[in-house]
């Protein structure tokens, strides 16, 4: 059985680990590898290595950091299919979907290639007589990223390129369910010229996470995952004096008005609900219809569901693959059971799906509920699977109120052909990322990604300008080079204009 081990100080860690976890092929249900689980001692070794590397990396030239990012970018561009294939084999998403994931991560690497521009400070000359004031941004030190299973390549790329380009050293704790792409990234960064110890990977579970959160030499932690864990990461990390950005779960609503293009809305709902088997924090899991919109929209959604092909990631024409583990598949099926028992109308049931030749795979088909109420668990909980709920409202204000009262605030969308209606939505909705006739409003790398309410803890969004601010601290410098003839003691409080 292949062992997936840690990467510390520019090389894989050798030796037999104390504990391991199983890594599966979701399409077959068979174990494909085992992953080493880090002890607190392994985490400490990674931190000490990163701390030593920081002493020289922080003083490296900006142009050198940029050149390494440019070299890494070229490697990822040339070999992205290799990373996507490895990703698909462990996660289960289709190969095309995996390629798209790597591409979205690549966009953040490209943003990091321009880090010198993002680190520019401000300068004010002669704020007082012979006094200038300016700012500089400096790295924090050793920083860590704790990332989820659903985007094992992209989400780490939302973190480490910017952190490293800003002059920090980085420790990545990827999901133990699909860990291999992180080691591939480590190998490619080393090939691009990154010095040993600047980027390290430790695998593991809560033991590793708690060791990261409690380590005195880690200055900041980035996290993406479920809301309960995000809250735990934020509260535990900040209590230890760390800077923390913790992105949590979601229950993303797509509001459809009667005047919307129903074909566009149906295409968008199916794409956003069932892409990557619904294992996306930006997936649409609730369609909130206004007036009679559902009567025209739901049949179109069902028609498109009937044409979806579900199967192994690499099979010709497959649009949706399996879920990541058997436990997760069973959990999603349990939500379908609960939704049916609570009285929602189950229009499409994915539970009976069996893929010929892959009967042991972790498959569940696209599932659609209508007439869902907001007190049902299929509405209140983040299912993180291919389950779409339709909630009917009579008035537009009811739909806006529903979204705003939901505890999550990651992403939302409105489908309408009325500009004033759309403007009302973007102004009043209490959600961090908003799409207008766009179902998954994920910003490009030169903006920043972050939700509101229980979808994000901390004051900094991830990647983009907010990412640069998270991984650096601002220093204000007030400088005076006075004429040596003008000296003397002055006990008064400093005043501008003198």
Which key phrases capture this entry?
498 residues, single chain, 7-stranded mixed β-sheet, Aldehyde Dehydrogenase, Chain A, domain 2, 38% helix, alpha/beta, 23% strand, Aldehyde Dehydrogenase, Chain A, domain 1
Question: What would you note in describing this structure?
Answer:
- The protein has 498 residues and is α/β, with parallel strands linked by helices.
- The chain has 2 domains: 2-248 and 455-477, Aldehyde Dehydrogenase, Chain A, domain 1 (3-Layer(aba) Sandwich); 252-436, Aldehyde Dehydrogenase, Chain A, domain 2.
- It contains 16 helices and 23 strands.
- It has helices spanning 40-57, 62-91, 95-112, 115-118, 154-157, 160-165, 180-191, 206-214, 227-239, 262-274, 293-305, 326-341, 377-380, 396-405, 419-428, 464-470, and strands at 2-4, 7-8, 11-12, 19-25, 30-37, 123-128, 131-139, 142-146, 169-173, 199-201, 218-224, 243-247, 252-256, 284-290, 345-348, 367-370, 387-393, 408-409, 411-415, 433-436, 452-453, 456-457, 472-480.
- It has a 7-stranded mixed sheet with strand order 15-16-17-14-13-19-20, sandwiched between helices. It has a 6-stranded mixed sheet with strand order 10-9-8-11-12-22, sandwiched between helices. A 3-stranded mixed sheet has the order 1-5-4, with helices on one face.
- Helix 9 (227-239) links the parallel strand 11 (218-224) and strand 12.
- Helix 2 runs antiparallel to helix 7.
- The longest helix has 30 residues, at 62-91.
- The chain is globular and about 85 Å long.
């Amino acid at each position: 059985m292949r062992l997936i081990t840690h990467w510390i100080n520019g090389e894989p860690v050798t030796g037999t680990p104390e504990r391991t976890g199983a890594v599966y092929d979701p399409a077959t249900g068979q174990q494909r590898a085992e992953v080493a689980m880090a002890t607190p001692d392994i985490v400490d070794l990674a931190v000490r290595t990163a701390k030593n590397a920081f002493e020289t990396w922080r003083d490296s030239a900006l142009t050198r950091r940029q050149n390494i990012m440019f070299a890494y970018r070229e490697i990822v561009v040339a070999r992205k299919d290799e990373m996507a294939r490895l990703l698909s084999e462990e996660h289960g998403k289709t190969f095309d979907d995996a390629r798209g994931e790597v591409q979205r991560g690549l966009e953040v690497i490209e943003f990091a290639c321009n880090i010198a521009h993002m680190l520019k400070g401000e300068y004010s000359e002669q704020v007082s007589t012979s006094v200038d004031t300016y700012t500089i941004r400096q790295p924090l030190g050793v920083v860590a990223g704790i990332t989820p299973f659903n985007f094992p390549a992209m989400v780490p790329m939302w973190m480490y390129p910017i952190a490293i380009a800003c002059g920090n050293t980085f420790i990545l704790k990827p999901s133990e369910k699909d860990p291999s792409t992180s080691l591939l990234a480590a190998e490619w960064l080393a090939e691009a010229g990154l010095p040993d110890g600047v980027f390290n990977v430790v695998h593991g579970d809560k033991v590793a996470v708690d060791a990261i959160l409690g380590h005195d030499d880690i200055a900041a932690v980035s996290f993406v995952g479920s809301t309960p864990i995000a809250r735990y990461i934020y509260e535990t990390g900040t209590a230890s004096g760390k800077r923390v950005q913790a992105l949590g779960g979601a229950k993303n609503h797509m509001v459809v008005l009667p005047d919307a293009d129903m074909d566009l809305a149906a295409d968008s709902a199916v794409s956003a609900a069932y892409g990557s088997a619904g294992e996306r924090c930006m997936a649409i899991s609730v369609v909130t219809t206004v007036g009679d919109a559902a009567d025209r929209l739901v049949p179109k959604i069902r028609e498109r569901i009937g044409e979806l092909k579900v199967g192994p990631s690499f099979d010709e024409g497959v649009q949706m693959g399996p879920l990541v583990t058997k436990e997760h598949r069973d959990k999603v099926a349990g939500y379908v059971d609960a939704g049916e028992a609570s009285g929602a109308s189950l229009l499409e049931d994915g539970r009976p799906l069996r893929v010929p030749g892959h009967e042991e795979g972790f498959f569940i088909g696209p599932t659609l509920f209508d007439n869902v109420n907001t007190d049902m668990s299929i509405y209140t909980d983040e299912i993180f699977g291919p389950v779409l709920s339709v909630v009917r409202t009579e008035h537009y204000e009811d739909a806006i109120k529903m979204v705003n009262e939901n505890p999550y605030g990651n992403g939302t969308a409105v489908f309408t052909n009325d500009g004033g209606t759309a403007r009302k939505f973007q102004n009043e909705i209490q959600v961090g990322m908003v799409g207008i006739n766009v179902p998954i409003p994920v910003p490009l790398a030169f903006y920043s990604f972050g939700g509101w309410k229980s979808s994000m803890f901390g004051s900094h969004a991830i990647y983009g300008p907010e990412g640069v601010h998270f991984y650096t601290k601002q220093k204000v410098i007030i400088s005076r080079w006075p004429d040596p003839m003008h000296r003397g003691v002055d006990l008064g409080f400093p005043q501008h204009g003198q």
